[in-house]
Specification:
The protein has ten helices and 14 strands. It is an alpha/beta fold. Helix 1 packs parallel to helix 2 and helix 9 packs antiparallel against helix 10. About 25% of the residues are buried.
Length: about 400
């Protein structure tokens, strides 16, 4: 984050998760994708991953199911999968040629089967094989959405064939956008076209619970408690400072409805964005720093983003901000000037965003839009083509990495 490593936060978050699992007697852990942020993660991140899985063996957790996300390299995740199975850790980085390979049995402490997990990772276009030469971007998007729905129907059929008795717990995983999901951060769209890749009601009813990944904010989908994004363990950028991070805990007793509980994850490092005019920012910073002391529940110093609204340059701004911070337990990661140019008539326009605050699609839309902000007649077709190209490029990057 702004060239800062986050291994300290990650270490504390994983230690908390491991401790929580042990204290509460959690028996099964499901992680719904994006184990890493990069297809080729640094060695320390891999070490944290393997160390965490190793520590779970000393807890109540008997089984772990991990799926790949759009940021993960399937081959990297799958490489130790055969070894992991000896420790009851099931990793599915990419879909298998045989869907039954992705059906993981769940057992109680006596070894009796109590349910099954349809471990569905991020579904790539090449996995679904729904693209046909000559398709328009809109047709390709529609076929891709059909492919996602068909795949979940296929997994539901696989689960139905595995279930030998009633009252077994049936879970599906996924790493995708679902209609209505709310995001706080600038997450890239992992599929071309709209974010409405699947509706809540399009997940087959046979699934007692659908564990989704990709969206950082914890939430249920379509108002259904059984379909949820667990969210990320730590806030991943300053747009998520208002989100309460949590994990989802499911209690299952044979013949009884699922009991679903959200457990809050502690804040290990606070991210705070301070915005306003220079005077407003200085006053807000003084108040924040006066109240802020390193506490046991927040062991790491906060990281700050300063956003100053101005229509002119401010000399020695960084030094001025640093003088306020000096000696206090806080670190400024970024100082941004949000310029507000004065238009004719004295009215001020909206704050102009910085280039690095925009995602590639937003930059493309601005590029093809007129001075009035209106798209050309073929604007939607151009955007669909851009999304298709970006989707292709993203998949090629994962393959190369």
């Amino acid at each position: 984050m702004y060239e800062r490593e986050r291994r300290d936060e990650q270490k504390l978050a994983l230690e908390w998760l491991c401790g929580f699992i042990d204290r509460e007697g959690v028996e099964i852990l499901i992680v719904a994708g994006d184990i890493f942020d990069l297809a080729n993660p640094p060695n320390y991140a891999r070490e944290q991953y393997y160390d965490f899985l190793g520590q779970l063996k000393n807890t109540s957790c008997r089984q772990v199911i991990i799926i790949g996300g759009n940021h993960d390299s399937p081959s990297m995740l799958d490489a130790p999968a055969v070894l992991f199975r000896y420790f009851n850790i099931h990793v599915v980085g990419a879909i298998s040629d045989s869907p039954s390979d992705q059906i993981v049995p769940l057992h109680d402490s006596g070894g009796q089967a109590i349910g099954w997990v349809a471990a569905v990772p991020f579904l790539r276009d090449r996995d679904l094989r729904y693209s046909i030469a000559g398709q328009t971007p809109g047709e390709r998007e529609q076929k891709l959405q059909e492919g996602i729905r068909d795949y979940y129907r296929l997994m539901a059929e696989e689960l139905a064939s595995k279930t030998g008795q009633n009252n077994q717990l049936l879970i599906a995983t996924g790493h995708l956008y679902a209609r209505g999901a709310q995001t706080a951060s600038k997450q890239d769209n992992i599929y071309i076209g709209s974010r409405e890749n699947i509706l809540a009601e399009q997940f087959p009813e046979i699934f007692d619970y659908v564990a989704l990944g990709h969206i950082h904010r914890p939430q249920k989908v379509g108002g259904q408690d059984r379909i949820r994004y667990s969210g990320s363990l730590i806030p991943l950028d300053f747009s998520e400072t208002g989100d309460q991070k949590s994990v989802v805990v499911i209690d299952y007793d044979v013949g009884s409805p699922l009991k679903i509980q959200l457990v809050e994850v502690p804040v290990f490092r606070r991210l705070k964005s301070v915005a306003g005019t220079l005077n407003e920012v200085e006053q807000k910073l003084k108040r924040f720093l006066a109240k802020r002391q390193l506490a046991e529940h927040e062991p790491l110093e906060p990281w700050l983003e300063i956003r100053i609204q101005t229509d002119k340059p401010i000399p020695s701004l960084a030094d001025r901000i640093q003088q306020l911070i000096d000696g206090r337990p806080a670190d400024v990661l970024a100082i941004r000037l949000e310029r507000t140019p004065v238009q004719e008539g004295g009215d001020k326009s909206e704050v102009l965003p910085q280039l690095d605050e925009l995602d590639p699609e937003q930059v493309f839309v601005k590029l093809i839009s007129g001075h009035d902000g209106q798209l050309p007649e073929n604007g939607e077709e151009l955007i669909d083509s851009f999304r298709a190209l970006r989707d292709w490029h993203s998949q090629q990057k994962v393959l190369l990495d």
